């Protein structure tokens, strides 16, 4: 009871007025990281479509879709997404001194984990909605892949 009132006053005067601007500043790198995840997924699926249109090979299509499932764990391909979030390092340094925010690396790591999880979910959903083995008409496969991709990106 004796700590509650001074703590409330401290939060109200020293932290709450800055929360909106802090969140806006932090969301820039976070949003660009998640946008990069979306772009990477889009690019990878487009490559599958283009490869299929060139080869019309259902076996190769299945291999490419299977390879897509490893995308969230491919650190080389995911690195550009992760680098966008590394900008938080600089932004959080200011917060560290002003608000005693520690464990900056943890915040970045968790954000990167969420990015990987988002990619896992996108790939899983794509895989569930599109199964090359279920496609009987190879003429419609590229169109079907595109429709599934757009559905996943929604």
Automatic annotation (TrEMBL):
InterPro entries: Niban-like, Niban_1/2/3_dom. Pfam families: Niban2. It comes from the Eukaryota. Residues 9-154 form the Niban 1/2/3 domain. Belongs to the Niban family. This is NIBAN protein. It comes from Origma solitaria.
């Amino acid at each position: 009871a004796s700590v509650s009132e001074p703590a409330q006053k401290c939060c109200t005067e020293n932290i709450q007025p800055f929360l909106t601007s802090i969140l806006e500043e932090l969301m820039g790198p976070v949003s660009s990281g998640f946008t990069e995840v979306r772009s990477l997924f889009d690019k990878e699926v487009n490559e599958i479509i283009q490869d299929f249109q060139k080869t019309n090979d259902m076996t190769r299509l299945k291999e490419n879709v299977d390879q897509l499932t490893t995308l969230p764990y491919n650190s080389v391909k995911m690195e550009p997404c992760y680098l966008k979030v590394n900008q938080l390092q600089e932004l959080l340094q200011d917060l560290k001194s002003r608000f005693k925010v520690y464990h900056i690396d943890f915040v970045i790591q968790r954000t990167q984990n969420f990015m990987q999880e988002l990619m896992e979910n996108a790939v899983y959903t794509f895989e569930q909605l599109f199964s090359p083995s279920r496609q009987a008409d190879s003429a419609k496969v590229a169109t079907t892949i595109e429709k599934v991709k757009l559905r996943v990106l929604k």
